[in-house]
Amino acid sequence: MTLYIKAGPDGKSVGDCPFAHYVRIVLHEKGLEYDVRPSTQDTKPQWLIDYYEGSMPALRHRKECYTESDVIAQYLDFFFQEPPLSGKKKLMAATQEAIDGFFPAVAKYLKHTPDGDDDDAALKQNLEGVLGRIEQHLSEKSGPFLVGDGAEFTLADASLAPKLFHMQVGLQKFKDNAINVSEQFPAVQEYMTAIFDRPSFKETLYPEETVVWGWSNAREN
């Protein structure tokens, strides 16, 4: 089993892609062995370019290849069922509704320059609105996770955790912590503290500097 992912600034280390991080968390939770191949536009395999438009993350297993993080995660959860990471459909749907639009809101805010202008303020307000929705969702849970009563870690948690990490680093580096998560959204902060301490997250994590590198490039384009 081989996972092709975006490379870091040296072209060889693990890059900053939160979607690849999501897949690696799932692989870790399942206890699966795999090779990780950080790749640049110049070093990704030709077959990946020819048949899959170079899309990453890409998981090659046996003779098949799967792209798109959700597709890969669902494939892994279907064929490697322990521990199960897919909650009941209705509960997963409710969670998805709560977190829908989060990463697009993060990306638009972090990429925007100049910081502090009227458009920046509107993008900040938009992200705060999504965080408020997640705050409400988490406040209704008795356990630490997203789905149902929050008792079980699911694909939703594996997906959201890397995106929250990007938000945390980006707010500190680029936005002078204009959104104070711990004060404005305490349930989100508590969730972040717990999920960032999970072994599957910590053991697949890349340095904050890699996140800064990625968003710095995005802000220049």
TrEMBL record:
Family annotation (InterPro entries): DHAR1/2/3/4 (IPR044627), Glutathione-S-Trfase_C-like (IPR010987), Glutathione-S-Trfase_C_sf (IPR036282), Glutathione_S-Trfase (IPR040079), Glutathione_S-Trfase_N (IPR004045), Thioredoxin-like_sf (IPR036249)
Keyword entries, A-Z: Detoxification, Oxidoreductase, Transferase
EC number: 1.8.5.1
CDD domains listed in its UniProt record: GST_N_family
Domain GST N-terminal: 7-84
Protein origin, superkingdom: Eukaryota
UniProt keyword Zinc present: no
Class of this enzyme: oxidoreductase
Coiled-coil stretches: none
Reactions the enzyme catalyzes: L-dehydroascorbate + 2 glutathione = glutathione disulfide + L-ascorbate
GO molecular function: glutathione dehydrogenase (ascorbate) activity; transferase activity
GST C-terminal domain mapped to chain residues: 65-221
One Pfam family per UniProt: GST_C_2
Gene Ontology annotations of biological process type: ascorbate glutathione cycle
UniProt keyword annotation of Transferase present: yes
PANTHER family, sorted: GLUTATHIONE S-TRANSFERASE DHAR2-RELATED (PTHR44420)
Family statement: Belongs to the GST superfamily. DHAR family.
Record protein name field: glutathione dehydrogenase (ascorbate)
